[in-house]
Structures are given as structure tokens and as C-alpha cells.
Batch of 2 targets.
Target 1
Amino acid sequence: MIYADYNGSAPICPEVRDYLIKRLETGPFANPNSIHHMGTKTLMGMENARAVCAKIVGAKPKQIIFNSGASEGISTVFYSVLKRAKKAGKTHIIISGQEHSVVINCAKRAQEEQDFQVLSLKANHDGIVDVEQLKIWLKEHGDQLALVSIMAANNETGVIQPYKEISDLCQQAQVPYVCDTTQYIGKTEFDFNKSGIDYAFMSGHKIGALTGAGFLLAKDTTTLEPLIIGGGQERNLRGGTQNYIGNETLAVALDYFQRNQDKLKKLFEKRKEFENKVKEKFPEVVILGENAPRLASSTYIALPGVHGQAVQIELESKDIFVTTSSACSDNEPVTSKVLQSMGVDDHIGRGVVRISLGLCSGPELYDEIADALIATYSKLQQIKSF
Amino acid sequence: MIYADYNGSAPICPEVRDYLIKRLETGPFANPNSIHHMGTKTLMGMENARAVCAKIVGAKPKQIIFNSGASEGISTVFYSVLKRAKKAGKTHIIISGQEHSVVINCAKRAQEEQDFQVLSLKANHDGIVDVEQLKIWLKEHGDQLALVSIMAANNETGVIQPYKEISDLCQQAQVPYVCDTTQYIGKTEFDFNKSGIDYAFMSGHKIGALTGAGFLLAKDTTTLEPLIIGGGQERNLRGGTQNYIGNETLAVALDYFQRNQDKLKKLFEKRKEFENKVKEKFPEVVILGENAPRLASSTYIALPGVHGQAVQIELESKDIFVTTSSACSDNEPVTSKVLQSMGVDDHIGRGVVRISLGLCSGPELYDEIADALIATYSKLQQIKSF
């Protein structure tokens, strides 16, 4: 079995599994906010995890707010930042059409309920957002802007956005930069404080840690308010007893990532090899974002005329699990919003499958995937669906 | 070592630990929203967990919205219900002084930001909220009421509130009844749909399931909006990839609870025995909520003149871990808000320790706790602190 949907959700990484099995047997278990010894011991474990995570992502421990994952983090930041912005008379938001549905839907709510006007950046054919248009809008709307929300790496194409450049532009314009780093942190090098980004996010399940754990990174936490109200946890920024077990696994997974940079390189090389092999056999094949910097282990690929869902099903019969787009819109047999924003034709858009591996999967799996995809295309090309 | 802070947070229950260890080794791991076989297999496991939970708490599966726990659930309900209520011209909220800080702080935000007027019910000396006053307010403010939020069981005293009666009153007055059942579900029998409650909550870590997982129960889910925005998960009521592993453990822990009702009875008997033993030795001892119905394994006890923190520390030297109040306010050497709302004097309020066990701890631990507490009181009484 080859699981090739790491961008959707990664399996628990073996290091995390081993850590958890030991941890579940030995404890400690307690409320990290209790002052008895079991509580402080639990707290120390969690704070140690915070320090490890902070170091790896280039942040200070106090810039990390543990939560349930990126959707919560992004919802919290939109809630906090837009509330202040509204009071200050701001009227506009800039996002990109590449964004995950959390950002799209947060912006939609801001438009419907707070009368913000949402400006959405298109991307070029390689999936890079239109930075020139961003410059124009930053100039044009300057003081009216509540925030700019542009992701670091796209969940479908794996294309890495020029977030450092965007961050510089936002800083010059003094507009908060919200950067969805969910597909980026723990998949490639990242330094939060050097990036200049105001708010970044991570979900444990994207990198092999426990589901339901994640964190929000804030340059200045005083700009935030809790979305989930509670008893003052996370320095009053996120209510509810902390998911201390989940939070510890974030540190384990990030530490594994940090110690395995060479494996990342290997993944990248093998992915390149796999893509070349398929292109050699089918020169008409389209790899979305091919000429853009991309995550090491992410490929979004289409053979024009062959339906993506047919490819997915055929690969599944060979015990290889891929998706046609992100999990959220997987059931829709239409060109995804991400590809629409890149100006991709339906002819290609309906044919794509996303093949994504991760650090905890073997890079050599790409050989098997290449053979299977070539066999699949050979078979399906004879019964073209559109 | 005796961990006696189950009301703060319960250790992972052995059944959950065994389930997890096996599960971590075998999988499946995938995004439950992906349509490939690994995704649907993961989804089926989660939906099976939802069905198990629903059956045990007397709800329909579609009335369960998985989330990160009760703080999130309560924040979501206040957000949704108050938004609609505001539009409908409602002006008042009723809570009780017994509520967990989530409810207190949600009400405070509603007052500060939405101009709701908050009416707070006091409790009698046994910790039961003033239902007669509730009747008066329901009559007096009838149509102005946005919601009533009164918990099922108190986290400090363990006192069970007459939530069925409150639910009837709210239904007659046609006011939504929000009932914080965090200390109730999985600790004693509960039937959501028979209770008439509109919204109820649970946190896995209170009953031995994984931290960071829980659910919200809603009589009518169409009254809710997502607080955490995402890609349409949980039928568009809670964004973010579901914590499917955590959610499965909720079913394991609730199933354990369901199959061990006899152990619950045993816990109750041994607790009674323990309390009587201490009272026999120290007739002046005060057990908060002594004459009220209480959770099987919860005791909030004070020896007037002996400081609670001294008792806690002395018990800790005997490897027994208790708290002086709830984890959130544990550091404050003052009478807790819950006790203030019961009219408890500082003389007693500053002396309390909370001793709480759970289904996964042995009832016989109460013998050891009784001996240790008696020895502690004997020692500390000679050096009374106030």
C-alpha cells in the first residue's frame, strides 16, 4: 500500500508513534494548569515542547499559541485583526484565489458581516500569485487595508509563494500579513521571525503529529484576542485545557523534520525523477506549477483528456491512494478554485490528481508510483473520458 | 501515587491507552474527508465513534459536532445563539455564579461587546442554584432573554444542579438552555434528548479519553454557526480536519463508562465512607454541597482554620495529588467564585481541597486518602494558619 495523500493528512510518523506508545504507558497525565507536582510536570513537558517547536520554526516560545490546528488559528487571527481594523476604519482585505477554504470563507464572512471589501489576487499559470497586482493594490488602498492573507505553499499544487517578498511589501505598507503556512512548516525550512510574517499557522496532522493539535505563531501576541474563551490558558489567548499530549507530538514531529533535511533532498530528487519518467512517456502531460518552486514531495499532474477521478480509482486498484484535489472539494468533478485562479482550462483541470508524500514515507516509493501512473495513463488514454 | 484531581483532568484510561497503542500500530491514518478508500475507512471509524457516543449520551449522531472540547463548544454556542438573539432584539442573559470561567467570560464578553445584561443566579449553601429566582427572572424578562446557561454538575463541589427542572422552565419560557455538562457526561447517566437541554458539552480529557477532543450536542444544529471556519467539515458547523483519533477515544472512554455502572456505585459508597471517617475524627469538618446530590467521586472539603494549600502540600508529600479549587484559579489563595456564590465564608473557603477520583481509578484508593487526610489534619491543626 502506498499512501500518497500527505498534503491531505499525513499518517502518524513512526517517531511520533513510538513516543506516544511510551508516553501513554508512563504518563504524566494531569491538567497542566494545576499547581500540584503532576500538573507542573505535565506543564514542563508541554513548555519543553513549545521551546523545541519555537526553536525549529524560528520563533520565541511566547510567540507560539497552542490550539487545535490551522483552521482555528486562521479563524482566530481574522477575528482579532478584523475587529481592531474595523474600529480603526479599515475597509479592505487582500487574499489570493490560491487560498485554502478557511481563508476564503473567513474573508467571505468578513465581507457579509463586517462589510469588508475583499480583493482577490489571481495567479500566473505556474501558480504564483500576482505580486505586481498586490503592489498596485497596496498603493491604491494603503490605509484602508485590514490585512493581506497569502499562503506560503499551496495545498494542491505545492507551489511556494514569494512570501518573503510579500512580507516586505506588507511591512512597507504597514499592513498585517497573515500567511497560511500549514503546508509549509515542517515540510521545508522556515524561520518565522526572519520571514517578517505577522501570523503563521501549523497543523500537526500535516506532518505526522497527532490530529487535533497545532499552533498559531504571532509576531506580537498583544494584537490577538481569544476566539475560544476559557479560563485564561495560553496566556489568555486560547481557552480550554491544553492538548498537552498532542502538543508534545508537534515537537517530536518537528524535531524529526529538523534532523532529516537530507531525506527532504532525496524526496525532491526522486519526485523530479518520477515526473521526468512520466513526461518522457507522455510528453503532453501537464504538471501544475512545474516551473515554480514547489514543496519537495508534491505533484499535481494531469494527462489532458483523461479524467482525474478515473486515474484516482485506477491507482487505488493498485493500492496507491491519491486525491484529485484538496480533501474539502474532493467530491466536485470540476476544476478546483486554485486551478481556476491560475487560469487552467477544464481540459486539464478535470484531469488532475495530487500525489503527495512526506518525510516519513520512503522516497523510493516514487519508483512504484511512476510505474503505476504510466500503466494507468496507458490504459485510460484508450478510453478517454472527455 | 494517588492522583486525585480527575475533575481537573483525568489520566488516560487504561482501555483508551490499549486502544490507542493498537490503533497507532495499525492505522488507518488519512483525512476523513478524502474520498479514497483510506479516507472513507478513516471516516467510517470516526462515524462509528460518533454513533457510539450518541447512543450513550441519548442523542442522535447528527446532533454531535466533534470539536476540541467544552471551552470551544461553549464559545461556539454563545457566539451563535447571541448573534441570532441580538438580531431578534433580545437583551438579557441568565447564568449562575457556579459556572466555569468559560461561561462567566463568554457572558462578560457579551456584556462588554454586545450590550447584553447578565443576570447571575446565586446558589444556596449546598451549592444548588436558586431556581426560585430563575422562575422570577424568566417571568420578568421573558421575551428579552437570549439564553440561560446553568451547568449540570459543578467542577469544584461536584454538586449536581436540577438541570431537568431548569430545562422544563426554559422550554416553557421558550429560552434556549445552554447546559455545561463537562463534569457530568461520562461521570453519571445522561440522556440528552430526554433532558430537554438545547446545548450540552463534553471534553475527552475529563473522562480518560485523549486531550484536545470533545463534542458539542445540539438539539437543533441549524441554530449554530461555525466559530472555527474551514472547509465544510462537520456538516459545515466546525471547520478543520477532524481529530479522528481523539474522537475515537471519546467513544472508547464513554463505552467504558457505560459498561462500568457498578464501579460508579462502588466509588460513591467508598467516597461516602471516606467522608464519614474524616467527619468522625473531625466533627467540625465542612464538606461543601454535602446535602446536595453530588458526583460519585467528588469531595470539596475544609477543616476550618487549616489552609487548603497547606493540606495540598502535606498530601503531596504523601504522594497524593489534590487541588484547592479548579485548575484555572488554583493559584489564588482566596475563596473561589463558586464558593462565594454559595455564600461560603473565607474561614472555610480558604481551607478547601478538592479530592476527585474517576471511573478508571480504584475506589479502594479512598481508604488511603482518608488515612492521609486525617493524618494531615491532625498535624496541621496544631499549627493553624488562620
Target 2
Amino acid sequence: MRIALGQFNAVVGDLAGNAEKMRQIYARAVEADVDLLAFPELAICGYPPEDLLYKRHFLRDCSLALEKLAADCPDKTVIVGFAEGEVGKSYNSAAVIRGGKVHKVYRKGMLPNYGVFDERRYFNPGAKPLVINIEGLDVAVTICFDIWNIRWLRKFLAGDDRIRMILNISASPFHTGKIRAREKVINACANELNCAVAYCNLVGGQDELVFDGRSIFADSTGRLVAKAKAFDEDLLIADVISAADGTVLIEPVEPAARQPTDSVDEIYLALVLGTKDYARKNGFKKVLLGLSGGVDSSVTAAIAVVALGSENVVGISMPSEFNSPETISDAEKLAGNLGIEFHTIPIGPILGQFHKSLQTIEGWSDEGIAYENLQARIRGCILMSLSNRFGSLVLTTGNKSETAVGYSTLYGDTAGGFGIIKDVPKTTIYELAKHINKVGGRQIIPEDVITRPPSAELAPNQKDSDSLPDYDLLDKILKGYVEEDKSVTELVTEGLPEDVVHKVIRMVDRNEYKRRLSPPGIKITPKAFGKDRRLPITNRYSQNQDTV
Amino acid sequence: MRIALGQFNAVVGDLAGNAEKMRQIYARAVEADVDLLAFPELAICGYPPEDLLYKRHFLRDCSLALEKLAADCPDKTVIVGFAEGEVGKSYNSAAVIRGGKVHKVYRKGMLPNYGVFDERRYFNPGAKPLVINIEGLDVAVTICFDIWNIRWLRKFLAGDDRIRMILNISASPFHTGKIRAREKVINACANELNCAVAYCNLVGGQDELVFDGRSIFADSTGRLVAKAKAFDEDLLIADVISAADGTVLIEPVEPAARQPTDSVDEIYLALVLGTKDYARKNGFKKVLLGLSGGVDSSVTAAIAVVALGSENVVGISMPSEFNSPETISDAEKLAGNLGIEFHTIPIGPILGQFHKSLQTIEGWSDEGIAYENLQARIRGCILMSLSNRFGSLVLTTGNKSETAVGYSTLYGDTAGGFGIIKDVPKTTIYELAKHINKVGGRQIIPEDVITRPPSAELAPNQKDSDSLPDYDLLDKILKGYVEEDKSVTELVTEGLPEDVVHKVIRMVDRNEYKRRLSPPGIKITPKAFGKDRRLPITNRYSQNQDTV
């Protein structure tokens, strides 16, 4: 018996386009003579469709698209995820297509409603397992989260000990370390239920999320036998052999796909795909960004070039009197190394004119935070103006560390359409910079950019370290506070300095309004800012926590 | 038997402050010799606390605050909402305080997870009803959504026909028409269960939401006997009389509170409270806004003055060559009528300098959308600079109609901290303008501002009607598409012109990214932009809907 996992890049809402992709994959699967072809969770409409699911006509269109697809796939058994609407109820479902028709439907039983997931907002849980027989093998159809609670799953499938394989169609988003969690789940599923596992994941970028693919076959001993490509489409095919002793073995038909070398490589590939898909799926050919000669904008530009091509990236240097000759020349050097279009627009004259106009208001000054922020806002205006004129997407260059503590100018450097490194901690930015040079096989990002102490260059001799703790310490506190919801007491018990912990937490909490207004970026950590972490702006707990 | 409903303005996260308020209300209730005092849902921590509920120390602090409050309220029965954390599980609970201790706990059974509600993200549903006896009367304790599904509630309480009163503690946010829905629910609850109803609602603004109070007593015939103040704190006290035939009558101890005169008055009061609370709870004394002489900024300024006082509102006129002498003079006239600080900063010189600098890029032009948007962005920069310098909150002035179709400049007129009229359709803005003059008893907003055809004044002789359909038609389409999730077919069937419907829907869908980046504003309609309506930015359905 032969199974194929059709790991493809669906676009949310593109019902006709997604179906067309699946028809093409189906043709390849027929050629390879498979018995069963599986597509990811909600493959018909893409994941997550969010409030599109509140539109009755959307659910109806999903059904129509599914029926058309079924009619076009008459010769094999195909499993495909779709949003199923009934009167007053909706389900996250898997259709079993046979003989050109929707033969059976399985409804997801476990609906995740935490982190980035809102499935209880839309779906009702299903209550009945579905087991199909493929060439003599009993296969239980499951959807994503169904297999993450093995106790629930065992109970759900109880009473049917003929099941020899768990087929799982997923839309499991990436973060660093997620693949290990997934492999553990698949291994446990195989071991506990004594079944082989065929796991088909989605691939592609969708707003803040990147789905990393890496569909998996495991045999009934829990061994992971085959893994599809990471961050790319793939058709993973394997033969399934039932041994006499009940063991189910898996034999992949092609050599193993190359996998990311380490976690930095994983992040790099996630950022490249997330950037490419956000731009392309939203109709942008070109992107535009400010190049300061700092490491954040350098890494952003380098990733954009890999994602979109050097001909589609434009760098703008916007120096003021506070920018050093070194950073200005590094920006130009980087642009040269990347082979991108590069322009310089000094902001001094505009800043001077703003200052002259604002001086009519008593108390205005060309010193202090307002004047610093004004420089960032002028740069934002320039980039947005060029974006409007030439139709390019503006990339913001803020990293997770500064986004967390609000070390940025609202409507200044946060002005743009997409933030590639928004969820990347500053300490990881440096690793990415070195990785980019390694992957490129030459010094793309100048060495100085990586070694120079970071500065916003908005005032004379300014350094990040004037306002922020050392980034190693800052990132440790942020990981504990933002990603792990730890308290001051817990962080201090771990050995972090109490005064710094208090200061950082205060900054994080006070800047919720700023984050609420910053463009989407790619989630790469277990908890990103955005729909992954939903905190009130109006929130007095910050001032009092751990002190009640 | 005497009951008091302590409708008060809680602040999210301010555990100590909320408890202190409740202690003061308790003292008044003791003076009034009540037998039972009820506070709103999650009164200890405010509603909604969102991801604060993911912090274990937050849940622990809620429990500590509850125990302290209980110790301070030893002489009466008090019902208070709190977030209850157990190992791995959390509940939206009501504590029954008696004898200075938490005597019993009821856990909310129906958890809303639609619209602005995410309760399944945080809470597990409770499974057991709680009936307490107060002076011989059996009272079932319920929380908010529990009474909105009367079939569920009847089943949940089945088997206890001694219950004579339903006590419901709520945090039910305002939108126009909501009070009628609430009254219907309370009436149905009384009639179907043959019980009196005591309904205690929260009051106050919390980010996008305004809770309108209007706590209610209904007798067991379903008659609404007493209603607390709208959009203000109140302590509603009534005597409960059990008649021999099982009827439960209610007698309020004080004359009825004044209620809003009509739906425009309701919206007006919601905006005033929402503005006041957003500013005050976030520590802003002053606000700042651009005054164009148009109706949107005029209404925004007028509401800010009522909310915060004329001494705390600053208006800035930022004319260009495209602004007519009439609108410029109307802005000044409005500021005079409101008695607010007023400054004029012409943007011409700054615009000229930007143009000069941008001309170095081939293809830049002083005609077209980029040049128009630049003017709005310069204004945004000026306002944000003054905000940074003087610590004032910048109010944005976009209404719901233009927010919907993206008739605004990202990081231009959308730059600010809070949008008072963000959820108010343009047609309602005009009604509000007239209402403001009526309530003020004089012409606060100049007549011209109300009668002049609206214009963004970013190009010569520009009118909104050059780019947009008539606002009456636009608002009808938006209500159907945005608030009611209707399809093109449905809208056209209702008599709306197909070409305009298509055009408007395309504009709404294409501008999701812009809305994602606009500051919070006050929800006044059944579906506001923001967490009430969660659509993907990357979304191809818009282009194809109804055409599969």
C-alpha cells in the first residue's frame, strides 16, 4: 500500500487556487500509483481563515470547491481538510474523497483555543472517530491537535483495535523547537497506539505565521522513517507494509530531503519563506527599507534579498548629523554587497524645517525624546512616501528585544508594512548575521556591523546601553517574562537582578500600546507579540504585581 | 429582604484599587441595611483581563485580594466576581462572602467565545449550579452569559423548583441596541423560570469596550422594575417581597435614575465615558488633536472636552494650500466655542522641504496619492512630536465609514493613541454633531461644519464623493457587509447597487492591513473593527467571493 502526503503552500481564501494546486499534486500522485493521498488541515481554504468562517457564503463556497475537487479526483482515495458549515454549526473537517465524491467526513474533536489558535471561536467539536480501510489497512483519520493529547485520543479511538495507522492532517505553525515537540507527539502516538503514523503538515507563510511542512511517516515502533522538506512544498511518498506480527513498516520511495542544519538555520529559512509569502501573497513585487548601517536593518535587507531577489529590494540611507561616517559607509557597503538599489536622502533639512515650525509652540525644544523621535518619524514619512509612489512594501527593522521594551518610535521606525525580525531577540540577530555570511560564502554583512556596539543614533554619542540593560541579560528576562509568563519572584529566584527585572517588566507592560500599533512580523518563538499574546493596554497590574 | 447591586467602575489589573472601591460600596450597603450586596463579573481584576490570566501569579494575587476583601466585609452576604485559578485550570467565578470568609464559589457554566469574547481561551466551564438562601429566599447565582441561553439555563437549574430569584453578575459591553437585548433576556429569564432577576452589570471604559452599567431588577412576572444609571457608577437598592402565591415583587428604595433619551444620546454618553476612562486609566491628563474644520475632528474635540474638560484639550490647525479659508476659520471658531487651547502650524514649508529632498529620487512627484498622503503624515509627525514633548494623548479623528474603506493615510491621520469615533459611521457623526449642539444648548459645532460637503483637502477641490459613494449608501453597505457578514448576493437582493457593493467590499477587504495598524477606539456598534472582527490580511477570498 502506498501513501502520499501532499504538503503544499495554500493561500487563505483562494479556494479555486488551492484546489487547482491539489489537482496538480493529485496528477503526480496518480502517476506514482499511490493508494491514498492526504492534504493538510483546511487545505481548501488555507489556515487560519479567521472570521471568514463567520460568513455563510464562505462556508458554502468551501463546500462547492470541495465537491469540484472530488469530481476531479475520481481514481484514488484523497483526504483533504475543509471548513464544513451546517445550520448554525461549523466543523474543522477532513473529507474522504472516493469515486469522485465526498465519501465520508471526519470532524476534528480537539479544538485548540490558546496561543495563536481561536478554533472554539468558529468550530464545534466532532464526537465520532472515522476509520477507513485502505488496501486492507485500517486507518484512523485525525486532525492536528487530536493527536496532541494522547490520553484523549486513546479514549476517543477505544474499542477499535484493528486500527493500524493514524493519519493526521495538520496546520502546525513553526517556532523554534516545535519540530522536536511534534516528533515526540508522533512517536508517542505510534508507541501508545501501536500504529504507524502518517502526518501531513501545511507549508507557507500566512501573516504572522509560517508553516514549516516537514510532514512525517513513523512506523508502528515509533521510529520516524521519513520527513518531507522544511519550508518548501513536497510530495512525500512511502510504501506501507503490514508484517504478520502486527507491526506496520514504512519504506520511503525517495531519498531523504535535506533538513535545516541547526536552530539558527531554521529561523533563517522561516524568515525567508515568511517574507516571500507575505509579499507575494499580498501582491507586492518590491520592498523598501531604511538602511542605518546597524545590524537589524542589515539582517532584514539580507533576508529580503534571499526571499525576493536583489532586484526587488531598495535600501534608503537617511543620515542626520548624529550618524557616524562609519555607519553611513557600512549601509552603502551592505547595499553594494547585496547588489540592491540604494539611495541617500539626508534628513537634516527636513528636520530643520520641522524644528522651525514647531518652535512657534512654547516649550518645544531640539533636545530630548521628542526631537529624537521626530528624526525617526521623518524617516518613516520618507519610506511611506516612496512606498505610496512606487508600490513597494516598507519593511520595518525592529527586533523582539526592542519591540518588547518599546525602544522604538511609534510611527517612526515602526512605520511600515511588515517586520521580518519582529520576533527575533537581539542576541539571535547577531547569530543570524553570522549565519547569513556563512550561507552566502562571503562577507555580506560587514564585520563592523556585527561588532560595533548598537546605537539608535538619534542624539550625540548615543548607545543602546545608555537606556537598556546588556542584551544578553535583557533577552533572558524577556524570555522568562514574555514567553513563559514568569513573575518577578520567579525571575529573581533564577538569579536575575531584581532591579533590572522590575525595570524591564515595567517597560514591557507600559509599551503594550506601541506593540498594538506595530506591523505584523514572523513568529519564530514559542510566544510572539500579536495574537499569540493578548494583553490589555489599560492595565494597572504591571505596577503592582507580586506586591498584593 | 433587601438587595444592593454595586455597579462600579473597575480598572483591569488594579486588584487593590478595585477592592478598595468595593469596601467603600460595602460600607454604604451596610448603612442601607441590605441583606445581599452583589458586584459585577470579575470585579476583583476588571474585565477583560485577557492574557494576564495566563500568569499564575496574577491568579494567586486575585485570590489574595478576594480573601482580604472577604475579611473586610464580615457583616453581610456579598457576591463578587473573581478569576479562580486551580492547578492547570481556571474559572470565571463568583465568590459568596459570608462571615468574613469565602463561603462558597460558583463557576460560570457558559463561556462566550465569539465577538470580543475569548473566555474559552482562559477558562474551563463550571458544571454545578449554586443556590444560596437569603432571608428565606432561594437565589441561584449566575454569571453573565449563563442567562443568555434560557434552554441551557433551565436544564442547568432543573430539579430545584424552590429557586425564586436569579442573581446575575455581568460584564456586558455596550453597543447600540444592546440594552434592549439585555432587557429581553432578563424578561425571558423571569418569565420562563418564574423568578425575580437581580442583574448587576459593570460600568466603565476598558480599551475598546465601554460597559454601560444599567443594572436591573425584574420581578417574577418579568416586569423590569428598576434600572441603575447608564454609563456611571450606582448602587441600586431594592426590597424583595415574596407573595404567598409564589410571586416575587421588587420595590426600589430610590426614584428611578435618568436614562439616555435616544440612541444618539446613548452613543454620545458611551463616547464620553470611553474617552475619559481610556485617558485617565492610562495616566493621561491632556489630549491633543488636529482640527481641520471638518465634522469628524469637530465632534472628536467636543466629546473630548465633555470627557476631560476644556483645559485639557488642545487643538492644532495645520493648514496647507489646499485648505479653504472657510474650514480654517471653522476650526478656529470651534476651538473658541469649546474654549480650548488652539495653535496653528502651517505645513507648507515642511511639505516643500520634503518635496525638495524626495525629488532626488527619480519618479517622485508633487501630484498623486503619495503627495496627498505626505501631507497627512506631516500632520501626524507634528501631533506625535507635541505628544512626546508635552505628554498629551493624540486623538485620531477617523470615523467607521472611512476606517472601513481605508479612506485615510496610514501613519498620517491614523497616527495617534485613541480614536473616539473609530466605530461611528459617518451618517451617525452628523447626528452626533447636532446632538452635541442640542445638549450644549448653543452652537458649539458651527453650522457650516455640519452642512458643508466633506473633503480631505489634500488636493485642489477634492471631495469625499470623488472617491466614495454617498455616505448614506456606503453606510448601508458597510452595515450589511461588516456587521452582518452578508454576501454580495444578499446585499444586491436587498436592493443595493451591485457595482457599488463590489467596489466597497473590495475596498474593505484590501484595507485590513491599515485597520490592523490603527489605534483602538470605542465600540458602539454590534461589530467593531479590532478584536470583534478578526480577518486575515493575506486573504484572496475578497477577489473571488460569490464566484466559485
